[in-house]
UniProtKB/TrEMBL annotation:
Signal peptide start-end: none
Protein name: ATP-binding protein
Residue ranges constituting the MPN635 N-terminal domain according to the UniProt record: 160-251
UniProt KW keywords: ATP-binding, Nucleotide-binding
Organism the protein comes from: Roseburia intestinalis
A molecular function (GO) term: ATP binding
Keyword Cell division among record annotations: no
Lineage: superkingdom: Bacteria
Keyword field contains ATP-binding: yes
Length: 474
């Protein structure tokens, strides 16, 4: 119960007018509010750090060195000074009165000391309604009119209550700031869960976030979500601001973590931030800047066009699997991007390869006698499939098809935009190899399909070639 020190006629009391007590609040919620207001006073007055300590008599003290709290602060539902400052945490009036009511309900003794007097708590009849008992504040004069700041004294709460309340403040954690932006800061996620802080006070936890965050610039959605209880603020309230924070980041440590996590899509170990398309897009652009050899592909690209993936690797690129919706976003971006600023998707890769690809076509007259004998059987080979497909305009012999063939050798290529079949000159050494490659590429021309399995396609080509060779030799 509240302790009353008797100073005769100088004792004053007033009704705290708490209409509804927050039944779900525990002691640590109340202590959180007291700490929040002390930290706010420190920020406003630019004074020394607050102290939280226990004296030998068992009382806990939450001390700030600001201007000192007086009873007028308890009569205000909202303090304009706090409402107009986005950097502050507490809300004098509402939060503090809720804290006092909670502590009183849990039988914690409270004394608030400052140069303006000592405030304690008691219950008394409401003025004009004798049958209604409400919580009142009782103010007695102080002997120390030169006291600096405010000393919140609590008796009856546990050390666990204090530590649990402190754990809700970034100031009292060991979380490391990785980067600060105009919207807030990215924190290293060292624990099991990620903490979401607003001006240094934890309002939520996330189980699958890459980072923890401290939001310091509050938008309307966050302000609305900071209800009276200020606990369990929903993800929808802070998602937008976290996106803003991440898209402002440019430090190596944050970008590298985003880029590494972006590559976990295929493994299923990606964190939730990278499931947001705009954050994933930002990470992709940064990845493209840091690692010029990056290409972005979908799971379907891997499944249905492995030859394209092989070509990327052959050219020294590193394909990274990302979701389809992110590829669509990249394609939209590429449409208006300047040269050199595009993101290399499968479509963009093909476009760039085609623009750079100038094969060295060998004139038939330059072939050796043996090569010419094989080449001259082209029409007879095509008779097996009803003649040259109408879509095929030219069949050309080239020295090589790709500049770099590190991973595997490409001996034939169907170029649909130009209606050309290109066959590597070395295939003319054996009729079976030339026939197999020719029929293989014509098959692509007729079907419009790409290679599915490189090993399967290679074996298929050999079989076709041997079969055609035997028939032609008959």
């Amino acid at each position: 119960m509240g302790v009353r020190e008797n100073y005769g006629d100088n004792v004053r009391e007033f009704d705290l007018n708490i209409e509804k007590i927050l039944e779900n609040w525990e002691n640590y919620h109340a202590i959180r509010e007291i700490i929040a207001n002390a930290l706010d006073e420190q920020i406003i007055t630019k004074t020394r750090d607050i102290e939280i300590k226990q004296s030998n008599d068992g009382w806990w003290h939450i001390v700030d060195y600001g201007r000192g709290l007086n009873y007028h602060h308890l009569t205000q539902n909202e303090n304009e000074e706090k409402l107009s400052n986005d950097k502050l945490i507490g809300r004098f009036g509402v939060g503090l009165k809720d804290a006092l009511a909670t502590l009183y309900r849990h039988n914690v003794k409270v004394k608030i000391k400052s140069k303006y007097g000592t405030i304690t708590l008691k219950t008394a009849s409401k003025v004009g309604f004798e049958d209604i008992i409400t919580l009142h504040a009782e103010i007695t004069p102080t002997n120390d009119t030169y006291m600096v700041g405010t000393d919140f004294c609590l008796y009856g709460c546990t050390k666990e209550d204090i530590e649990k309340a402190k754990s809700l403040f970034l100031k009292f954690t060991e979380d490391t700031s990785l980067e600060k932006t105009k919207y807030g800061e990215v924190l290293d996620n060292s624990g099991i869960n990620s903490g979401i802080y607003i001006n240094g006070v934890k309002v939520a936890e996330e189980t699958n976030f890459l980072f923890s965050y401290n939001i310091t610039s509050l938008n309307a959605q966050i302000k609305k979500a900071l209800n009276r209880e200020r606990t369990n603020v929903g993800r929808t309230a802070y998602t937008g601001r976290i996106k803003d924070i991440l898209k402002e980041c440019c430090s190596d440590v944050v970008i590298e973590k985003l880029v590494d996590d972006l590559q976990e899509f295929g493994s299923g170990n990606r964190h939730d931030e990278l499931s947001w398309s705009d954050v994933a897009m930002y990470a992709s652009m940064k990845m493209s800047e840091l690692k010029k050899d990056t290409t972005f592909v979908t799971a379907d690209d891997l499944k249905y066009t492995p030859s394209l993936i092989d070509d990327m690797r052959r050219s020294g690129y590193n394909p990274v699997v990302v979701p389809d919706n992110l590829i669509n976003k990249m394609e939209d971006y590429n449409t208006g991007a300047d040269d050199g600023k595009t993101l290399t998707t499968a479509k963009q890769y093909v476009k760039e390869e085609q623009s750079r690809f100038v094969p060295n076509v060998i004139n038939v007259s330059e072939l050796t006698v043996d090569e010419r004998n094989v080449y001259d059987k082209t029409d007879r080979i095509l008779e097996f499939i009803g003649g040259k497909p109408s879509i095929v305009k030219e069949i050309q012999i080239v020295d090589k098809i790709y500049e770099s063939e590190i991973f595997s050798e490409t001996v034939g290529l169907w170029v649909p935009d130009e209606g050309r079949v290109l066959i590597k000159r070395k295939q003319l050494k054996e009729l079976s190899k030339y026939a197999g490659t020719l029929l293989h590429e014509c098959g692509h021309a007729i079907s419009g399909a790409g290679d599915v399995s490189r090993d399967f396609e290679a074996e298929l080509t050999d079989i076709i070639g041997v079969l055609a060779s035997k028939i032609l030799s008959m």
